User: Fold these one by one.
Assistant:
Number 1:
Amino acid sequence: MSPTKKNIDINTIYNQLISILEARKIASTDQSYIATLYQRGLNTILKKVGEESTEFVLAAKDFEKLGLAETQNELIHESADLWFHSLVALVHLNISPDQVWQELEKRFSQSGLEEKASRRHK
């Protein structure tokens, strides 16, 4: 890790974010963007996830092509937006993001090719 970067406590950030997302379920739509998304429903949230997915793909292509700090920053920004809105969707559906982490953890015990092949038999 570069000495100019501060250490990031991922668990603290994650826990704070999930707490905020849960709290926004009952927040006023006048004061919360997330509450507005929840109030408008799953289709609105999924449209946002789709939009962010597209922006992520475009930013990744720009970064690969240009490799500039500006395009890297844009890719990081769009990654954060995509992760964030994916979490909003999960919380809206009352699915704990911890379940996603558990699924990822299970995959450490097998190769990606094995995991993909196992889905064909379900």
Number 2:
Amino acid sequence: MPTEFKLPALAENVDKVTVTKIFVSVGDTIAKDQTILEIETDKAAAEVPSSVSGTVTEIRAKEGAVLRVGDIVLVVKEDGVAKAAAPAAIAPAKAEPAPKRAAAPAPVAKVAAPAEKPAAKVAVAPTPEEAEAEDGETEQGEGEEPRVIQRGGGVPVPASPSVRRLAREIGVDISQVPGSGSDGRVSLEDVKAHSRLVNTDVRGVTPRMAGGTMPLPDFTRWGDIERLAMNSVRRRTAENMASAWVTIPHVTQFDKVDITQIEQLRKQYGKRTEAAGAKLTVTAIIVKVLATALRKFPQFNSSIDLENNEIVQKKFYNIGVAVDTDRGLLVPVIHNVDQKTVVEIAIEMNELAERARQRKSKLEEMQGGTFTVSNLGGIGGTSFTPIINPPEVAILGISRAHVEPVYVDGQFVPRTMLPLSLSYDHRVIDGADAARFARFLVEALEQPFLLFLEA
């Protein structure tokens, strides 16, 4: 029997990838754990090993194509050894494992169903019934198989009642949700992940609408044009930023910090840091200061859980630092900055940035961030309003430092001033808290001794 190799789940919240390279051809013999595919997500590149062995009879993936978790990559025919061993392995499997796989979802559905509040279900009974009638669903009794609705074109969508109920309640079209389970089965996590991309706000505005759905005019009437395909990074950035802008009430707090003293210290100890293998930058210093600031103001190191009406405060401090690459903006994460020195942060930040630019980032290096820093000072500008990187609730923008006259002790003196832009989620953070957070950063950078008092 031919064996299909399907794209496995590579990381949390990664449901689709772009194929950049295929290492095998039809007729090749492959072994388990052999690298057969190179893929690119919106954040990193990775190699995909095979979980099957045999002779490749068909390759369904193509370089440049977009695959979803569960899509068939290739088909192999088991070799002679595998065939000889197959009967012994398959004989008991027909009686035991196969039914287990089919029955596995049933207990989950049974457990999930009672978890729903009966009172709430009765209160909203008319709405689900109408929705089920529209979807072509039928009522399901206790112990029956989960109902299946149809995707466009008549393709069935396997999902339990609790999953479809959640989709209806948060306004998600389940037929548009890519399933990560066996045979494309849609789970609660799939619905939540899809909701983060296309969730509507209270006025019914979607990220797609925010990006503009007006048809484009025929630009060729006025001259030549060129159409460039959006790569996976640019496409996902567009989706995430549109979703963040529509669903998060952004407010930006602006301030300036006098870094004259820090610049002197940076130049004084720069060579020592370079000897350790890093360049001492203002960004590395700010990342270290942020560890103390986030501990003092935990609401900035949190996420909002609207489903449970809770604010999730993290007890770890992982700072993402935006990196400009030829594919677009990537945000590698420096984990546990509170446990690292400024020199260690500078070294790691440089290594992460280089790997991001060379397309060598690992998926785990792009995950787990609790706060983000975006520094445009190397390019220019006086200030900007950075967009929050969900599920975080704040982001710090850094612009170019300028020497300005500052009134000190009755006279104007030249000081190096660094503009800061702190964007925050107003659902979690109040304006007064944002002002205090920004002032703490300013005072800590201007008077480093304050860190010893607060740490």
